[in-house]
From TrEMBL:
It comes from the Bacteria. SUPFAM superfamilies: Acetyl-CoA synthetase-like. Residues 21-318 form the AMP-dependent synthetase/ligase domain. This is AMP-binding protein. Residues 369-441 form the AMP-binding enzyme C-terminal domain. InterPro entries: AMP-bd_C (IPR025110), AMP-bd_C_sf (IPR045851), AMP-binding_CS (IPR020845), AMP-dep_synth/lig_dom (IPR000873), ANL_N_sf (IPR042099). Belongs to the ATP-dependent AMP-binding enzyme family. Pfam families: AMP-binding, AMP-binding_C.
């Protein structure tokens, strides 16, 4: 089956991909994407400015038709992050509105093992790394979700998530294009936009759901939907409960990573358990291990490092033009998350093993890259960045800085201008010194915001 099967197989439907600024039928999308494919055929790798617009969807679809790996560049990326992504990937940046003429000839389907996407994502230190994801992984991941969520061509998916991550792009765009559902992209994931856009499935990160839960009229407008899906970060139990009360249905939670796609989920026809992310999707196996790698019991209480195995795993990280395979342990990918699993297979994500990976508004941000950027400001001598629990964002990026006299706003703008805007610290504490241990390492646990 072709990766974007519905584009080739489904009967056309008017306005199958819709944004507030326009719409495309499947036929129009296929023609325009085939035009893009013809204009980039043979390129080793391309990049696109992933603005939330039809043009991005056309360009990504064209690259997938051509079998050319594509790097979606965050549209709010500052100079340093943009330069890093383009230099590291070696990709040519195509304009979002690549003015290619429509074409009638669709290229032959590339091999399933071909790289489809390179998604840049943060590690604990250093600049973001390019995660290489194959067509086969995307196909397997979407088919597993189709089963778990009973996601069919009868559905209309609504979301307004960014188009440079797994959630908004792989699930939120490639899902409808493979499975045949409609897609309404609201450009921004606001409560008002979701409430005014009819659909059967709504995707959001917990920050989106928490804002909807705080807007009862908007939440009630989603009552007719078939599925409200939350992922990318922990959904607070009070938000789960508020959504259930206001919409008459409990949200479906699912868990995943850029490197693994979605691996664990609640099912459309099954239980939805607050504070839990569900059971492994078909084809995925999971296990908990201790620090030494010994397998731990799945008794619902024992906390261990979560590892996953299956067909949705990354090919590797892009490195100097090569794909460096991930550090798998006998085929198991170490997620970096700590979890419990109960005898029925229900997973509860307890947190991350490292405090240096922050999840803010559903975005993954490495403390190291924010610290490195702050240190490039001439007034800054030392910097330590942490994620502080936050009711709206999950975690709020908070910086502790030893510096010559400088305003917090200047440092925030300095980071926002160099990295993606959402990587900016929302709060900067100017301090006399950072707490360090005898080895000179910053003791982040001792940083307090009082
Ligand atoms: C603010 N802005 C600035 C600025 N401060 N611009 C420049 N300099 C500054 N100092 C601007 C921003 O550009 C933006 O402009 C506006 O202010 C608001 O920005 P914000 O405050 O950062 O937005 P916020 O409301 O906090 O966003 C919340 C959110 C967002 C939920 C909408 O965090 C979001 O879209 N999250 C989704 C993340 C996601 O998709 N993650 C999936 C990862 S995949 P403007 O013009 O834009 O309004 C994954 C796998 C899986 O995790 O399991 O799914
Ligand atoms: P990213 O690579 O940006 O996709 O981030 C992946 C990380 O997001 C995971 O390692 C988890 O820490 C977190 N995550 C994703 N989904 C969930 C979820 N449903 N609950 C808790 N954490 C999640």
């Amino acid at each position: 089956m072709r990766l974007l099967a519905s584009l080739h197989e489904s009967a056309d439907r008017a306005g199958v991909v819709v944004t507030p600024h326009g719409s495309l039928s499947r036929h129009e999308l296929l023609g325009r994407a085939a035009g893009v494919a013809a204009s980039i055929a043979g390129a080793p790798i391309v990049a696109v400015e992933a603005v939330p617009a039809l043009s991005t969807i056309v360009t990504v679809t064209g690259a997938l038709l051509a079998g050319v790996p594509i790097v979606p560049v965050p549209p709010d990326a500052g100079v340093s992050e943009r330069e890093h992504i383009l230099r590291d990937s070696g990709a040519t940046l195509l304009p979002a509105g690549l003015a290619a003429a429509s074409a009638a000839t669709v290229p032959a389907e590339p091999a399933p093992s071909t790289a489809a996407l390179v998604l840049y994502t943060s590690g604990t230190t250093g600049p973001p790394k390019g995660v290489v994801i194959s067509r086969a992984a995307i196909a397997a991941g979407l088919d597993a979700l189709a089963g778990a969520w009973q996601w069919t061509a009868e559905d209309t998916l609504v979301h307004g998530l960014p188009l440079h991550h797994v959630h908004g792009l792989v699930l939120g765009v490639l899902g409808p294009l493979r499975l045949g559902s409609g897609l309404a992209h609201t450009v921004k994931p606001t409560p008002a936009a979701y409430a005014s856009t009819p659909g059967t499935m709504y995707f959001g990160v917990p920050t989106v759901w928490s804002r909807i839960a705080a807007d009862p009229a908007a939440a009630r407008a989603l009552a007719p939907a078939r599925l409200l899906v939350s992922g990318s970060a922990p959904l607070p139990v009070p938000v789960f409960d508020a959504l259930a009360a206001l919409t008459g249905q409990s949200p479906v939670e699912r868990y995943g990573m850029t490197e693994t796609l979605i691996t664990v989920s609640a099912r459309a026809d099954g239980e939805r358990r607050p504070g839990h992310v569900g059971t492994p999707l078909p084809g995925i196996t999971t296990r908990l291990v201790d620090e030494a790698g010994a397998v731990l019991p799945t008794d619902g209480e024992t906390i261990g490092h979560l590892q996953v195995k299956g067909p949705t795993l990354l090919d590797g990280y892009l490195h100097g033009g090569d794909v460096r395979p991930p550090d798998l342990v006998d085929g198991w990918f170490p997620t970096g998350d700590v979890a419990t699993v109960d005898p029925g297979g229900w997973h509860r994500i307890v947190g991350r093993a490292s405090t240096d990976l922050i999840k803010t508004g559903g975005y993954r941000v490495g403390a190291g890259e924010v610290e490195d950027t702050l240190l490039r400001h001439p007034a800054v001598h030392e910097a330590a960045v942490v994620g502080v629990p936050h009711p709206d964002l999950g975690e709020q990026i908070t910086a502790f800085v030893v510096a010559d006299p400088v305003g917090a706003a200047e440092l925030i703008d300095f980071v926002a201008g160099r990295l993606a805007v959402h990587k900016r610290p929302r709060v900067v504490h100017l301090v006399d010194s950072l707490p360090r241990n005898a080895m000179g390492k910053v003791q982040k646990g001792l940083l307090t915001t009082d």
